[in-house]
User: Fold this.
Amino acid sequence: MKGHIPVSLFMLFVLLVIAGCGSGSSTDKFALRAERENKTFPQRLNDSITVDSTTFDKENNTVSYYYSVTRGLDDPSIIAAEYVNIWNGLNRAIQNAVEMKDYLVAGCTIRYIYYSGSTPERLAEFKFNPFNDDAR
Assistant:
């Protein structure tokens, strides 16, 4: 049958494409991007939030952004009370941000980790995965 691709060959191709999403040049590119971005941090976003650093974990295909918060946000009870609203806002931002498109296309998990600016306390982690919108 001319022009017909055997099912086993097609499945092998699909598996290679899926496996390639989390490996090779994409992960190398993301790791280099994290290194470049770290040269610009810390970066104050507003009077309460500072981006401290970022990492890319090749093994887990995960980009992480680390923040410190001060003033009114530097309170675990406020973060806990507003967790769902913050998660929803971050999720919308990720979906609409051009700079996040490559991560989404590659199936990366995206994490935002917030720390207190006055203590070493971890206040919250927000986790997003393009294949599981409810990765909280």
